[in-house]
Amino acid sequence: MSTLTTHPAAEPTGVRALAKRLSLHLDTLPTAAAVVIFIGMIIYGEAAYGRIVQFNTLSNLLINNAHLIILAVGLTFVILTGGIDLSVGAVIAFSSVAGVMLINAGWNPWLAMALMVLIGTAFGTVSGILIQHFHVQPFIATLAMMFLGRGLASILSTVPERLADESPLRSLGTQIEIYDGPKVDDIVITPGVIIAAIVVAAAFFVLHRTRTGRTVYAIGGSEQSAALMGLPVAATKMWVYIISGTLAGLAAVVYTARLGSAQNITGIGWELDAIAATVIGGTLLTGGAGFVLGSVVGALVLGLMNVLITRDGGIPPEATTIITGGILLVFVLLQRAVLARRRE
Amino acid sequence: MSANAHGPSEALKGLVRRQYFWGIVAIALLLLVNLVKDPGYLAVSIGQSGNLAGNVIDILRAAAPIILIAVGMCLVVSTGGIDLSVGSVMAVAGAVSMEFLNGASDTVGSGLAAVGLVVIVSAALGAVNGVLVSVVGLQPFISTLVIMLAGRGLAKVITGGQNTTATNETFRWIANGYVLGLPVVFLLALLLALLMGLLVRRSALGLMLEAIGMDAKAARLAGVNRRALLFTVYILGGVLAGFAGVFATASVMTVDVSRTGYQLELDAILAVVIGGTSLAGGKFNITGAVVGAILIATLDKTVVFLGVSSSATPAFKAVVIVVLCLLQSERVRRMFRQRRAAGAARPAEREVVAA
Questions:
Q1: If I label A194, which of A43, B111, B209, B265 is the partner at 20 to 30 A Cα–Cα?
Q2: What is the mean pLDDT of each run of 10 residues along chain B (355 residues)?
Q3: Are B84 and B265 in contact (CB under 8 A)?
Q4: Has residue B150 been placed in a domain?
Q5: Strand partners, B53
Q6: CB–CB contact B143 A326 (8 Å)
Q7: pTM for this entry
Q8: Hey, which residues does A262 pair with through a beta bridge?
Q9: Domains in chain A: ranges and CATH
Q10: In total, how many domains does chain B have?
Q11: Where does the sequence pass through the membrane (chain B) (predicted)?
Q12: CA–CA dist A325, A280 (Å, integer)
C-alpha cells in the first residue's frame, strides 16, 4: 500500500525492458500515445505549415487553452471516480455572463470574480447531492444542470456582454513578456496560464499524494470495495463534483478575462472538449486509472489541432467538433482494447 | 387517521402507476390559465378550405416533432440508455433535405425523395450510436454526446454554414397541409407513435427492452438478444428524430443549422419523464411520452401567449426534470413509503444504486 512506485531490482536491458515496461504499465499506454501524437502533430505542423515550433505559437497555445486545461483537470477527478460532468460548458456560460453583468453594474470586480467561482461551486454541489444522496445517474444530474445553467444564462442575457477594457478582470488576461525574442517571437504568459499551472500542480498533488486522491482512484476501481475498505466514498464523490464545478467557475474567470466579453452561448460543446482532453490523456472513461498531466497533454492536443485546422484553411471550422468527436471515439476504442488485453 | 390515510395513499399509488394522468391535469391547467387571459383561447374556427384553425391546433402542430423524438427517446431510455443526439439528428435531417430540395425540381417525386434521404441519413446516424452502444459497449451518453456535437458540425458542413432555403410543395404540405381538417404533422406523429406503441406492446419487443433496462445480464441469460435490440432501438430513435427534423424544417422550408432542434433533447427527456418512464430504465410508457410532448408544446405556447420571456423556459424545464428525477429516486420514494406505513416496521429495502 505504501510503496506506490515499485523499482525492479535489476533493470532488464534493450527491447525486452521496453516490452516489459509497456506490459507492466498498460495503463500509461494511452497517455504515452497522447504524448506521441502531440509531438507528431508539432512535427507535422512545422513541416507542413511552418512557424509552429517557436515561442509565440507555443505561448499562445497555452494562453488560448488555459481554460480548457482547468476544465480537463476538473473532469479528470470526476471521470476517475467513474462519473461524468456534462454541465461544465453551461456553468461557464452562466458564470461568465453573470460575472460580467455584475461588474458592469458596478460591483467590486474581485467580489464578482469570487462569485463567478462560487457559482461553479454551487452547481457542482447540487450535482453532487443529486448523484450521491438521491442516486440520480451522474449524466442525468449533470445534464439537467447543463440545461439549467444554459437556461439561466439565457435569462440574464442573450447578447454578448462586453467588459470595459480597464476592468481588473481583464488584468488576468494581460500578456506578460517573460523572454524577449526576435521580432514577436517572445515567451508570453498571462495570469490565466499561471492559474492553470497552479490548478494542475494542486490537482497533481491531491490525486497522487493524498488520501483523498487514493480514494478517488479506489472509487473508480470499485465503489463497493472502496466502501468496504472503509474509505469515505460518499464524501469523496461529493467532493469530485464540487471540485469540477468550482474549476468550471475558475475556467469562466480565466476565459472571460482573456476574451473580455461573455455570452449565453459561450462554451457550447466544451464538455465534449474537456471529456476528450481527459480521455485522450489516458484517463479511463470507466474510472480508476488516469493522470492529471495526461489531461493537460490531451487539452494541448485539442488546442494544437485547432491551430493546425486554422493554418490549413482547407478544413471548414465547423468540422472541428466532428474531428474532436472522432478522436474521442478512437481513444475510447483504444482504451477498451487495452482493458481487454489486461483482462486476459 | 388510517381511514384518512387511505385516500392519499390510493392517490399516491395512482401517481406512481399512471404518472401521465398528472400530465393531462397540467395541460388542462395551462389551458385554463390561457382561457382566463383570453376567454376565446380555446375557440377553434373553420378557416378557408374547411381546415380547423385556432390556438389548440397550433399547439398540436408544435407538439408533432416533440412527440416523435419523445417516443424514440422513450424506447432508448427503457433500455437504460439515453439519446442526446436527437436535436442534432433533426438539424442534419433538415440540412440534408433542404440541400437536396434546393437543387431539385418542385415535384412530388423530389419531395418524397428528400424524405427518403432523411430516413437513410438519420438511420445511419442512429446506427452509429447503435454500434457504439451495442457492439463496442460504450456508455450511451458518451456515444450520443459525440453525435450530438459532431452532428451539429455535420449539419453545418452539409450546408456550408448557411441556412439553406428551398421550395417544394409536397415537402411543405407535410408540415402545413391538412387532412380531415387536422394538421398533417400531428396526424403523422400520432400515427407513428401508435405504430411504435403497437409494435412494442403487441409483441414481446417492449418486454425485452424493459428486461435489458432492468438487468442486462439477466436479460441475456433469459435469451434476449441484447445487441440486436439495442442496435434497432437506436436506429429507430434516429429515424424518428429524422422525421421530427423534416417536420421542423418543412413548416418554414428553411434549416437553421444552429437552432433547428437546439436543446430539443431537453424536451424529449422531459416528455419521457413526465410520462412516467424511469430514467433508470426498465419501464416505459409511450402514451405518457405523447402526453408529455403535448404538455411541453402547450407550455411553450402558453409562455409565449402570456408574454413571459421565452428565454426562461429552458431553465424552468431543467428544474422540472430535477424535481421529477428526485421523485423517481429510491430515497424519496422510501420517504413516501415510510410515511404511508406510518410506523409499521419494514424490512430494510435493498439499496438500488443506479450504476
A1: A43
A2: 52 62 84 85 74 83 92 91 91 92 83 92 94 86 87 89 84 82 88 91 87 85 87 93 92 84 86 85 88 91 80 82 80 77 51 41
A3: yes
A4: yes
A5: B45
A6: no
A7: 0.84
A8: A161
A9: 32-343 (1.10.3470)
A10: 1
A11: 20-36, 56-78, 84-101, 178-200, 231-257, 269-297, 303-327
A12: 11
